[in-house]
């Protein structure tokens, strides 16, 4: 239907705008990530800033962590990354739960648009 075509076109347009914003304004993207990504727990050999760098690379990350404060062994790095992964998963679930009611309401509101 015409309504579905308009919705599809709007979704594509919004997706393209988001991609363009991410491509053309890296400082805004990184600052928005700075607000969303949780901090690492204290005492880990890593911090969230390690992962938010514009030029992030795994090679550089390993070198920086290895040099920082006497260096961290691979077993320590593995354990710390596992801890931070749990923090990230928990934070993601929290974000989803915060927006879940809005998401459900959105689908309810869209049903009314078909009429």
Plain-language structure description:
With 115 residues, the protein is mainly α. The chain has 4 helices and no strands. It has helices at 2-24, 26-36, 58-67, 74-113. It is elongated. Mean pLDDT is 75; it is low at 1-8 and 10-26.
Number of strands: 0
What is the molecular shape?
elongated
Structural class: mainly alpha
Question: N-to-C terminal Cα separation, in Å?
Answer: 12 Å
Measured as a percent range, the helix fraction is over 70%
Question: What integer value in Å does the Rg equal?
Answer: 20 Å
* Helix segment tally: 4
Low-confidence stretches: 1-8, 10-26
N to C succession of SSEs: HHHH
Strand content: under 5%
**Main beta sheet: strand number and arrangement?**
none
What is the average of the pLDDT values?
A: 75
Keywords:
4 helices, single chain, 115 residues, mainly alpha, 0% strand
Give a brief rundown of this model.
The chain is mainly α. It is 73% helix and 0% strand.
Describe the secondary-structure layout.
Elements: H1 2-24, H2 26-36, H3 58-67, H4 74-113
